[in-house]
Amino acid sequence: MPDRLVFEPEEIVLAGKVLSFLNEDGSSQCWASAEHIRTVMDQLVHLRQVVTSYTSVIQSHTVAGQQRDVHTLTDAICRSNPYTFELFMPTRAVVGRAYLVAKFNFMRLLVRIVRHQMSEGERKLTLLGEMLHFVRQSVITMIAEDVLVSIASDPGLELELRRKATYKLADLWEHRTSRSVRDFFPLLLSVWEAKTRTTISYGTLTGTTEILSLMREGCDPAVIEYFTGEDIPEDERQAWMELVFNATYEEMETMRRYMERHRKQVLGAEDVAAIFNVPMDSLHRTVQAPVDMFHTFHERQVNAYHRRMQNRPGPKKTAEEYLMIFHLEQTDIQVPEVMPATRLAPDTAKL
User: Fold this and answer.
1) What is the pTM of this model?
2) Which among 65, 131, 250, 306 is most buried, taking Cβ atoms within 10 Å?
C-alpha cells in the first residue's frame, strides 16, 4: 500500500474542527492559535519531505563499492547489541523517529488549545476524546518500536527471531509516515487502550479485578489467554503483573512484604501511597496521560534489562516484549517490499 500523506484523514478532520471553532470565536488569541496550528502543519509537511528524501532502508543501492539493501541492514542489526544498536540505525530511521515525535507533539498542541480555549460542554469532551486517542496511538507506536529494537539487539535470542524483528523495523522505518501500531501490532494497541479506561485497585495483588476490568474494556482476549495460560513461565507471569499494576517487580515485592509484615489481606491505594511515601496522584493507577504510559513502560523496561545483566530475581523482559516475541514466532514475517512512492500534495496542510 502506498504511503499516506502527512496526516491521517481522521487527523485532518480533527485539525479542521479545531480551526473551525477558533475561527468561530474570532478573538485575537484564537486567531493566533489558528495561525500557529497552520505553521506547525506546514513544518510537518517539510519534515516529512526530509524523512522520505533519505535513502531507502530496503531498496538496493551501492555505496563506496558495497551493495546495501534490507538484507545487509538485517545482518548489521543482528550483529548489534543494546550498547551499539544506534550506530547501526540508518539515518532515515533516526529522522523518522523525530518525525513521529513531532506528530505526537502536534496532536498534544491541539489538545492544549482545545482545553484552554474551548468552552466547557459535550462538544469539547468529544473532541478531546478523539484527539487523545491519536496521542496515545503515537505513544504506543513508539513503545512498539522500542520493543522491536530490544528484540533485534538481544544477542541471547535466536537469530531468526531477531531477523523477524528487524524486518518489522525496516518496514516501519521505510514507511514511517504511514505506519502505526494498529498496522503491525494491534494486540499491543488493545492492551494499552483498555488500560486507559481502567483503574488499579491493588486489593490482594493477584490482579483478578484488574484483568477482568481489562477484558471488559476491550483488551484482546488473545492477550489475556496468553498471559493467564497454565503453562505460562513464571518470568512472563511476573512481567504481566508488572503491566497490570503499572509497577516494577521490586515494587510489587515491597507491597507483598508490607502485607505479610502487617498481616493485611488487601491493600488500598492509600496504603500503597504510604508504603512508597508518595502522593496518591503519583501511583499511576490509571495511564490516560501519554507521560504516564511512557513512564510506566520504560521504568519496567530499564529494570528488566538490569535484572538480565545482573541475574537478579524478577522478569528479564517486559510483558510487551514477551507478547511481541510470541507474535513474531507465530507469524510468517516476510522481507518488506519496496512500495511505489507517493507524491506529496502541495496543499496538504492548507486547512
Assistant:
1) 0.88
2) 131
